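#struct-help
A.M.: can someone run this one for me? Single chain, 977 residues.
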Amino acid sequence: MKNSSGFFSKILKTTVITIAVTIVLVVSLLPFVLRWQAVSWLEQQGLDAEIGYINIRPILGSVQINDVRIAASETEQLVLDEIQLNIDWSPLFDQQLYVEHAIIDGLSIDIVSTHSGLRVGGIALPGKDDTPDPKPEPEESAADSALNHIMLERLELENIQLCYSQLSEGDTVNARQCIAFGELALVDDIDVSWGNQASAEIPGIQLKALRWFDQKEPADLLWIDLVKITDITSEDLARWQIVDISIESLGVLPIRVDDEITAGDLKFSTLSVSDLDVWSDNSIGNIALSGLNVDLNLQGKGEAIFSPRLMARVEQLLPPSDEGADEEQKNNSAFSLGQLVLDRVSVSDGGNNQQLLSFKNFNMQKLSIRDSKIGMSKVKVSDLVLLPVVSEQGQITGDLQLSALSLVDSSFGDDSHIGVLNLSGIHVGLDTAVNGQLAFAPKLLDRIIPASNDLAPENKQRETSFSIDQLVVGDALIRDKANQRNLLLVDQIDLLGLSTKGETVALAQFGVEDLKLLEPLSEDTVGADYYFTTPKIELVDVIKNASLFSLKELIVADPVAFIHRNASGELQALSEIDRMISGDGKNTDSNAPSVNEQAEPLAIVRYSIGRIKIGSKGKLSVLDESVAPVFKKSFNELSLVVDNIDSSSPEAKSALSFNLGLTKFGHIKFDGTLTPFGKKLNTDIVGELRGLDTRALSTYASDYIGYSLDQGIAEADVNFNVQEDNINAAITTRFRKLEVSALSETELPEGAEALGMPLDFALGLLRDKNGMIELKLPITGDINSPDFSLSHIVGKVMFKVISETIINYYLPFGLIMAATMQDTLSNFSFDPVVFSPGDVALDAAAMASLDKLSEMLNSREQLHLSFCAPSTWQDWSVKFGPPVTVQEGASEKPTEKLASNEADSTQENDTLSAAKASVELEVELEQAAVLKEIANQRSEAVKEHLINKGVQTGQVILCEGKFDQTNKELPKMNIAI
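D.P.: on it. Structure tokens below:
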């Protein structure tokens, strides 16, 4: 028994040793067997295969494989320098896998897509048709699964490259792109559980030197120096949270110098993304980006394209898109962002070596996107410059400069809303386009705006709405860079309560402070810095829709306007604006609308304006170069108030008040009411003109009447009344100390005509003893057929008023009009003073006539009358002639009868002439001297009578007495001006 027990003991030991040796032998030979079988199988697949080293330590749970080379061609390989895997077996009993470390170094894999399927490193993967349909198996519960928990303590991937190629049916390479990185490592242990208590914790991942490049058409597509992802967690393996993602030094199509990205279609220094929540409602807490530079391609017409070479390579990798699915996904998408911060952003056009856009800071808070709606709590942008240029002094300027932008509580979609928009430091520089007009960044916009803007008629847009609670714009400037002048300068713009919906626009309040419009060219200025300035413009409660325009109040405070009429007769400001808008007229675009085409009439049927107020300390400067000499004048105290304009109440009266200061003490003023929307016009306006220095109008007087106004003050009273379109107006003008001088034919401006009357002479007749001239111009007739052109008023109407005024005034004093009086106002006189033949004394009729003249001369002290009284044939006949026999019944002294009644003198004179016809007149020298003295005595008698009535001596001018023997009429004294 003893021997048998020792035998069994030896057998057992031998067996154990044999088994141990066998196991050791098998384990020792296993790597070689696996290596031999793997290489053999790969070679059977037609691949070149080589495995340098395999080491398996089952007890320790370690596997190491080195120097794996599998190749079907140069572009289909799988290369592995080294892989190390260390597993702790003990947790497997609890359905857990614990990997102590996994290290891969020098891995390169080629993936090839062909029409028959995928190949990885030259190894064909089973296609959809290569495997039978799997039989349905009962769902495996979490408790039945082999593993429900994986932990990874250390993971290191170094020098990894993955290449993807697409082959056509002829094995032609359509695309070949690769991704490579220098290192991928875990920050700490990975812990992943699934089943009933699914969760995941990844403390962090670090990726270095990521490179995406194209091997078919060699180019670097993307380079990232460093990517860090920290604290990736999930409580159910469906919703994931990431604490932070940071990227350093990223470049798209990068250009690298000394391992530093210096340029590229896109590059930035740092990107930080924190608090990510990836689920159906994706959200990001914060995004911070610094040193962003974007290079757009603006070659040719069309939209700006970002990195076309990159996009073309991305399209090679994308499968055909399902537009319907994309639209559905878009409509069901949701995204939110707590904060986005951009620092030092630049956008350029590398193809044209031009910088397009730059700004220093961009800060956006609480961005939300759901379906097609976008909401933002706050947006801030600072130091934005469009088309920036650096001057020699280092200053940055551009076509658009914006110091700061602030946007609060905004949402965009079908119904858009902005809470508060604040803009400050806006400077816009306009360039001259090809055909001469001013345009905003024409060289840029011509490249990025599509050539055709035609919209398909069937694409009818939905009715949308937009509203903004408040808009504040500060320090705004628009500048004409070609002429180095400002077009618009505004200190501040305030807008409150703007809303639009379809064709309806509503605005609660709009205000502009310190507005300056259109700086004149240097050669145009006459002390005016701008064509229009005002410290304030305010609009209150504006409503506009298809049938209504309503405005509660419009205020323009104390405007300063400069009106410049150039030598061609055009308003310089309007011609400048027309040039800036329309150019020089050389635009050959056949689709451009003709200036002669009439715009569609407005559909608005009702206008309602509560009040328009302009002034009251406004100023107006006028420069007119179309007349000679050039007219320059400044006016002050400009004000205009119009109340209650409502087209829905045709009979309602609108109040009007206007004032314009002409000098320090002069003004023109109108007050009254009118009904602008009635079927027929009704208005009652009273106005006055005071203190106008007529020298200011001398230039226009030269043009229209051929006279220069040398001095004088003009006043006027206007009473303009219209009832049912019938005018009943009166304009009364008064001129004080008015003096004029006629221009010679050589002095008359080109195209001007003389008035056709001696104006200085006529005005002298109109002056009273105080030197004042008063003219009244009545205006009557139908308002629909007026005839009041400027030349008509200044020429014919003026002549008519002056002539009628003179006639109406002087007619009671015995004025006698010549036949041509009303056409030329060149010849008139007064009733003569009749004397009895041979007598020098004044009878009662003569004294009554002279009394009227004395009254006239006393009221017109500047008026001078000439008195000429020659002795006639009848004086000689009475003094020296023979007696005359007349018919029976005739008076013995027929001359007394002739003197008493001048109406009968003609008949009596004819009788006397017939009686004396046979008598030959022989006048001796002594007789002629007597008759001349009679004439002088008559003149002295008239002057003495007038002086006794208060007439100034200088107003009476006497002619030298003479004897006119050819004059057969009664002796009489002729009186003329």
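A.M.: thanks! Residues 8 and 14 are 10 Å apart (CA to CA).
D.P.: also worth noting: The first strand starts at residue 48 and ends at 57.
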